[in-house]
């Protein structure tokens, strides 16, 4: 069976719900409002290199949807219902996640989040005001990402790259940052309560303050 190739198409609401699509090409396609619950996309292309346009998933239902080894560059994920969304080993540069909802409300004041975004390139992606708490977000590239007003409380951000990244604009309490390249993180300006760091990172952060750490051995 030949891989799917679609260009400049509006995708019907239930066309790919629960389906597994491998090596498909979706060039400048519109998934707005579609229901992709439990859908799996493996090795798929959602970025048109010729026009330099990504696909729109605006207002799509992405509950437990999965993208593995896909190119989602410049994708529009605004206002999606994304509880349990899985993005692994993907290109997601410049994607827009504003308004994406990764939360399950248990009561008016109680909720939990679920997302599995790992080993992906999130450079210059927009996560402004997104809540991604206690989620698996390890080994990603966050270089230049916009996280203004976002909350990552308790998430696993280990092994990440955070160059050209403004730590002051989001909340990172109780995150695991071990093994990450911390870029311009200034511990005088960022609340790091409960954050996990490894010894090499701590030495680097202290060195930036002009403090010399002397071994007591």
TrEMBL record:
<protein>
    <recommendedName>
        <fullName>Fluoroquinolone resistance protein</fullName>
    </recommendedName>
</protein>
<keyword id="KW-0677">Repeat</keyword>
<dbReference type="InterPro" id="IPR001646">
    <property type="entry name" value="5peptide_repeat"/>
</dbReference>
<dbReference type="Pfam" id="PF00805">
    <property type="entry name" value="Pentapeptide"/>
</dbReference>
